[in-house]
Amino acid sequence: YLYGQSAVPEQIGSTYMLLEVNAAQVIGAFYMPHSSFDCFRGSFEANQLSLMVTNTYEQESYPYAVALNQDDAIASTQGIVVPPIQFQGFHEIDALTDNDHRILGMCRAGLQ
Questions:
Q1: 0.90 cut: is pTM over it?
Q2: Taking a C-beta distance cutoff of 8 angstroms, is the pair 18, 29 a contact?
Q3: SS3 breakdown of the chain: % helix, strand, coil, rounded to 5?
């Protein structure tokens, strides 16, 4: 899934959140076009996505949370998150680029 501060992909100066949901776990990255990216791992809680973000350069991790829109349901009857979810301050973007897949693959490999 891809979300952006801008509804337009690859908008210079906008931050994008790329994520993959497996069961209750989330792996992904924050990035700006033509810049570096920081990988994250986390899970959904009642009203937010709670993350541990790993800085690409220093490899230091820090906690971060992204608020969910209040009207979104975040769990199915099995307790598994059911996207699409809307994050406050982000727009859902339908298409992932080859670069998005590359970033996600690098984060998946680096956070295992």
A1: no
A2: yes
A3: 10, 40, 50
Bridge partners (DSSP) listed for residue 39: 29, 54
Please say whether the beta carbons of 105 and 21 come within 8 A.
Answer: no
69: tokens are 């829109």
Count other Cβ atoms within 10 Å, centred on residue 58.
7
Q: Which helix (H) or strand (E) holds 63?
A: strand 61-67
The number of beta carbons lying within 10 Å of the beta carbon of residue 84 is 9
CA distance 46 to 50: 10
Tens digit of pLDDT for each residue in 49-108? 999 999 988 889 999 999 988 664 555 445 555 555 788 889 999 989 999 999 999 999
